[in-house]
Amino acid sequence: MLEMTREDFEELVAEALDRIPPELTRLMDNVAVFVEDEPPPEDPELLGLYEGTPLTERGEWYAGVLPDRITVYRGPTLRMVEAEGGERELVVAEVEVTVVHEIAHHFGIDDERLHALGYG
Quick count: other Cβ atoms within 10 Å of Cβ 33? Predict the structure, then answer.
């Protein structure tokens, strides 16, 4: 398996977040980003997951709730890149795509639109 420590992977996620334009990050609200080694067993190839209420669905009722959660999964990302014969540069690119994909869900953009934009 392509080797990368959890700390190095977390740094890639942080760098991907830093590349999100400030005008978008200022709009993000009540969301936390995490790195986990593996996704739930029922979806072992999942690279990222958004859990929460998208900004487009929040109303006056939205108050006092726990933060939305974006999780990026290290194991499947590294396995996928390794299967494609990739190195660190491909991991960097895939992490960035995953982070953008999950943040887009926070903004209410669905998978169909993300695939059309190249963030599938």
Answer: 21
Can you tell me whether residue 89 is helix, strand or coil? helix
Whole-number Å distance between alpha carbons of 69 and 106: 9
The pLDDT assigned to 20 comes to 94
- At which residue do the structure tokens 């700390």 appear? 7
Cβ-Cβ contacts under 8 Å for 16 (sequence gap 6 or more): 92, 95, 96, 98, 99, 100
DSSP lists the bridge partners of residue 32 as 69
Structure confidence at residue 34 (pLDDT): 98
pTM, two decimals, is: 0.92
Neighbours of 111 (CB within 10 A): 12
- Listed as ranges, residues in the chain with pLDDT below 50 are none
Contact 52, 31 (CB under 8 A): yes
